[in-house]
Amino acid sequence: MTTTITNPLPGLHTVHYEVYRQWQAVNASSLKHALRSWAHFRHELDAPPVETDALRLGRAFHMALLEPDRAASLIVCPPKFDRRTKDGKATAEAFEATLTPDHIQVDAIEREDMGRMRAQIMDNPEARLLLTNARGVNEQSVLWCDKATGIECKGRIDRLLETRSARIVIDIKTAADASPKRFAADAIKYGYDVQAAHYADAIRTLHADSKPVDFVWIVVEKAAPFAVMVYRASEPDCQPDMMTFGQSRRGKLLRELRACRENNKWPGYGEGILPLRVPAWEASKMEVGDE
Q1: Which pTM does this prediction carry?
Q2: Are residues 133 and 172 in the same domain?
Q3: Is residue 93 part of a domain?
């Protein structure tokens, strides 16, 4: 039997992910599908969630880093068993009987890698300071209304830190390549800029003061040597920075979403027969006069 969760009042809330997931509001993860098309956005809303290995490991690492007390009991390594034997089948069934939807299964190598990833993050002085400052709180779920469009929004903030001069939203990302060039490309591709703008808007909306909101990514690579980088979304000397770019893209997406809802139309890539152009990066490889 499925229990319907009623949205709470706007604000910051400390609730488990499964409760947050049922809130009826738009999050940054769903908006990233609209960067492809609104048909894909709508499909993702209607389709049952599918957890890939990448998502499973991402959830496990976030819990291990940000909720170590829960991780101690909820991240489990399955025992070795051979289902082809009677004893192996009994061992498997006994283990599976102990599992709940909150448990995350990892193997021994994955657990070891997560430990090394955490160690590398805590060895980075900037990341360690952001994660250990006593003024920060982890795993905050937020609900608010976007003022420009009236659309109800939600977000799951990894860590929110309040200093004397600013509020800082901290987001943990695992990546194949954490270098500036590669992560910047991934940020645009996967809508991390939209996420930064989404969360910053939440914090600004919920606080009437003029205290600035900053957004920081702590990025750790998923394979040895588990390199770590810390990036800010706002950079006044570099325009457009990720925050400015994300605010523009998020505003456009929310306006389009309002129109889609009003018209009950969820378009794909476009209509008609379109010319297929050579991508600019490929065209640039050709020299003038080549035949």
Answers
A1: 0.88
A2: yes
A3: yes
